[in-house]
Amino acid sequence: xxxxxxxxxxxxxxxxxxxxxxxxxxxxxxxxxxxxxxxxxxxxxxxxxxxxxxxxxxxxxxxxxxxxxxxxxxxxxxxxxxxxxxxxxxxxxxxxxxxxxxxxxxxxxxxxxxxxxxxxxxxxxxxxxxxxxxxxxxxxxxxxxxxxxxxxxxxxxxxxxxxxxxxxxxxxxxxxxxxxxxxxxxxxxxxxxxxxxxxxxxxxxxxxxxxxxxxxxxxxxxxxxxxxxxxxxxxx
Length: 236
Description:
The chain has 236 residues and is of the alpha/beta class. It folds into 2 domains: 184 residues, Spore Coat Polysaccharide Biosynthesis Protein SpsA, Chain A (Alpha-Beta Complex), CATH 3.90.550.10; 34 residues, no CATH class. Helix content is 32%, strand content 20%. It is built from 7 helices and 10 strands. A hairpin with a 6-residue loop joins strand 7 and strand 8. Helix 1 crosses helix 4. It is globular and about 60 Å long.
């Protein structure tokens, strides 16, 4: 087998509502998307690094940082409702048509996971190659926030509705570890993704990463946590 053609796809929608212009919001002294593009480049894994965006500003910035943006996203996959992997699948197909080549593996890197490093990407990729699977998603282990004790709360009566009532009387060390998906590094065989149009395909696997690398930025509080992670890594 010849050298695999591997594409990194960075979906970067312009219309974020909770954090306006989130993907270019300054973080650690740089636009947020810069950290993901840099990690992809430093990994040295990719035939192409594609930023899939509907925003001209994001497109120009991404090109200046070394990514390819040969076309802008148009249509329904740039709305507030479509799962991100729909946009990734469409971008993969469009890029194959544009380059007149087929990719073997696609790696989706969400720009709102800026703390994931090049070494995280390499380790996740090598783990994927070691498995007999078509899909792999990154996860992190819950730590101090114990989901076994999670509950819904009626905000009128303030009465709780435990999701796992049988776990409430157990010590945390007696409960199984639980993991949460993170958008940091999702990997698929390209043909399988085009066929199933989801990373949650049959027999998908997971790759655990640490909570810092897994950090997803969706709310303003997440920005503060990400800044703290960058400062911690810099020894500030």
